[in-house]
Amino acid sequence: MSTRGRRPAPSSDLRAKVPTAASLVVPQSMVVGFLRLTAANRTFVSAAGARRRIRARSLRPAPFGPPSALRSDVRVDVEQRSGWPVYRVSRRDGASRGTVVYAHGGGWVGEIVSQHWHLAAQIAAEAGTTVVLPIYPLVPFGTAEEARVGIIDLVTTADGPVALAGDSAGGQIVLSAALSLRDEGVVVPRTVLIAPALDLTWSNPRIPVVQPSDPWLGTPGGRVLSEHWRGGLDLRDPTVSPLFGDLAGLGALTVFSGTRDVLNPDAHLLRDRARTAGVDLDWHEGRGRIHAYPLLPTRAGREARVEIVRTLRETLAG
Q1: pLDDT tens digits, residue range 110-147?
Q2: What is the pLDDT of residue 288?
Q3: Which residues face 285 on adjacent strands?
Q4: Average pLDDT for residues 182-207, to the nearest whole number?
């Protein structure tokens, strides 16, 4: 996807309108109320909503650059890699060890937003590492295969120890990349998955049970986005739906999932299959929590971010 017309300015996606994780702590009920008031799920609750979102984003790409104010103890740099802008967030004092390659979420159609930037800055500063944020091509131009190849390139060319992390759609991308890297003999020691999308067939029978409590995601629009994202691959190809991959031999996984998230049923399947395959699994289930809760400005979100930082710091310290 060409980056022409995509300007590096503060993000204006819906999630950027929610108070940032760095600014305050609010009750989840306020976040849910805001999501319902603004019809945050309009992309997902109908196929037509997803198609409208795809058209809108293809005509008017969202800005993707960092907010004007991040932590003062980090710096942000950017380069072009195969036509992608790739940002690096690192400590200003140079005390950075290893790399975390982070793929942002957004339903494969939404751009990186302020919550992603603030989490990256927190990881960089407090885990003492460099966080690499690729601005990967989105639907309708990007595909799962293109994203997988790009993430693999960033991992295999990184200096020192490297971990993977991603939320929602980004969780799908990094887990698919981890599977491919394993097949190539490169075992990523830790992959952190925040509310990951795992099965793009949306066929889990428990999804309709969870759906009424989820204020954000939905199956009809999700299926439209999945059809675009799969490109020429089958929906059950692990590059598209990593839940269908063989998990044996993967490095450790850390999974965060809320029970009010339609992606939670598939996270349970990942948990069970990882344990059966002998994969080291660190499981965090937020009872009553919504999609991608570790990125939100709630008490549970703040506690989850502390755990994410601790996990990555210990992983990269060797």
Answers
A1: 999 999 999 999 999 999 999 999 999 999 999 999 99
A2: 97
A3: 257
A4: 98
Does residue 1 fall inside a structural domain? no
Residue 118: inside a domain? yes
Q: What angle do CA 129, 132, 138 make, to 5 degrees?
A: 155
| Alpha helices (H) along 41-82 | 47-59
- Domain residues for the domain of 175 are 14-316
Helices (H), the chain: 14-17, 28-37, 47-59, 114-127, 144-156, 169-183, 207-210, 219-229, 264-276, 299-316
- Residue 258: its H or E element: strand 252-260
Residue at 7 is within a domain: no
Q: Is residue 280 part of a domain?
A: yes
pTM higher than 0.85 for the full model? yes
Question: What is the three-class DSSP state of 21?
Answer: coil
pLDDT score at 5? 35
Structure-model confidence comparison of residues 7 and 106, the more confident one: 106
Q: Quick one: 105 exposed, middle or buried, by C-beta within 10 A (0-12, 13-18, 19+)?
A: buried
Q: What is the CATH number of the domain that holds 19?
A: 3.40.50.1820
The structure tokens listed for 16 are: 């950027």
Q: At what angle do helices 299-316 and 114-127 cross, to 10 degrees?
A: 50
Structure tokens at 310: 């601790």
- Please state the domain count of the chain: 1
At residue 315, φ and ψ (nearest 5 deg) are -60, -50
Per-residue pLDDT at 273 exceeds 60: yes
pLDDT digits (tens, 9 = 90+) for 78-114: 999 989 999 999 999 999 999 999 999 999 999 999 9
Distance, CA of 226 to CA of 219 (rounded, Å):
10
